[in-house]
Amino acid sequence: MKIRAAVLRECGLPQPYRDSKPLSIETLDLDPPEAHEVLIQVKAAGLCHSDLVAIDGERPKPMPMVLGHEAVGIICECGNGVDGFEVGDVVVPAFVATCGKCKMCATGRPGLCLPASKANAEGYLLGGYTRLHKDGVPIFHHSGVAAFSEYAVVSEYSLVKIKTKIPLKQAALFGCGVMTGVGSVLNSSPLQVGDTVAVIGLGGVGLSALMAASAGGASQIIGIDVNPKKLQMAKEFGATDVFNANDPQVVEKVKIVSDGGVGIAIEAAGVPSALELAFAVTEVGGSTVAAGLPNPKREFKVSHFTLVAHERQLIGSYMGSCIPSRDIPRFINMCENGSLAVDKLTSNSVALEELNEAFDLMVEGSMIRSVLEL
Questions:
Q1: Are strands 90-93 and 369-373 parallel, antiparallel or unpaired?
Q2: Which helix (H) or strand (E) segment is 334 a member of?
Q3: Which of 109, 169, 197, 214 is the most buried (most CB within 10 A)?
Q4: What's the pLDDT at 365?
């Protein structure tokens, strides 16, 4: 079938993207779903920082590629052998499929699924295939989803069926930003009622982490970012205190208001300096969780002495340490019950033709989450 989609053919083009247009809106050929695959009509897709780092070249991807990995859609067709899904189901794709057989999946860590991670790195669907092409040339799939498109073929092992009354533009965010941020607090960290929490980096993931800390009973929640607008936003998401990361005295100020440091610090910015700051504001015996995803070549410094002598925990959190089939419905239920104000995360809706301009707004930090609606 013929579809319209946003294709990245060259990374690292200069800003503003409204002029350089790294995403071109093209008509592509989409093959029908094969065994254990489904065709979905994409209804909404969030614009995530992981899409931006593909565009700016911070984490290069195979190209040409259809971006977009945080989405919701409706199943239109099922390939052979699909089990548990049918036409008409509303589904949220996880950006890492779950093969169910590898060591990571077998031990309850599907976000680290080995075959899916390999397929994502190569721009393929689980199993090593592409279903997109133009003039006979394959087009790669971002994170097995390729959601900046009218339709997408995805593996059934990427999908979570949902039943909810929340708007689909909000449901889309559970596929990445909400799942990652909420999971970093409720799954990866050792949060207990009454703990003190700091979140460094207040994009969609960080603001989701703030909400999760509040829902989990944290007594004090500190938001830290370089953008004053995001610091103001943080107060609407549960932050009791906010600090600018560029303040030379930020570590001392956080330690003063938290009586020596926070019990849990969540890094959600994806830059080493943010993780170093998160580690610095964590108290003796506390836990620092790294949830932002940087360029693979970037490193950070940590005191070996502090790690040992202060019995500190340094925890990596990928995809919020989530089991998508369990956690996406659970987090949606929290939203329906009023524990997660996901509606506040969706800043504006855009069309395919407006994606380049929307990524300019992301760089500027003037929007929390733009959502492509189709």
A1: unpaired
A2: helix 324-336
A3: 197
A4: 84
* Closest C-alpha among 40, 163, 105 to residue 322: 105
Whole-number Cα distances in Å, 253 to 48, 261, 330: 31, 9, 36
Encode 213-252: b = buried (16+ Cβ within 10 Å), e = exposed.
Answer: bbbbebebbbbbbbbeebbebbeebbbbbbbebeeeebbe
Per-residue model confidence (pLDDT) at position 347: 83
Residues of the chain short of pLDDT 50, as ranges, are none
Kind of pairing between the strands at 241-244 and 262-267 = unpaired
Tokens 């609606």 identify what position?
Answer: 373
- For helices 228-236 and 204-215, give the axis angle rounded to 10 degrees: 30
Check if the beta carbon of residue 332 is closer than 8 Å to that of residue 343: no
Return the structure tokens found at 338. Answer: 């009023």
Cα–Cα distance, 371 to 358 (Å, whole number): 9
| The pLDDT value given to residue 125 | 97
Q: Which percentage of the chain shows pLDDT scores above 70?
A: 100
| Cβ–Cβ < 8 Å for 148, 45 | yes
* Count of C-beta atoms within a 10 Å radius of residue 36: 17
Provide the token pair at 223.
């938001």
Question: Backbone dihedral region of 127: left (phi > 0), alpha (psi from -120 to 50 degrees) or beta?
Answer: left
* R_g (Cα) of the chain, nearest Å: 20
- Measured from the Cβ of residue 112, the count of other Cβ atoms closer than 10 Å reads 17
Structural domains in the chain, sorted by start = 2-175+341-373 (3.90.180.10), 178-320 (3.40.50.720)
Contact 266, 184 (CB under 8 A): yes
d(CA 271, CA 275): 7
The CA distance from 149 to 43, in Å, is 9
pLDDT in tens, 82-100: 999 999 999 999 999 999 9
Other beta carbons within 10 Å of 263: 24
* Cβ contact 202:227 at 8 Å: yes
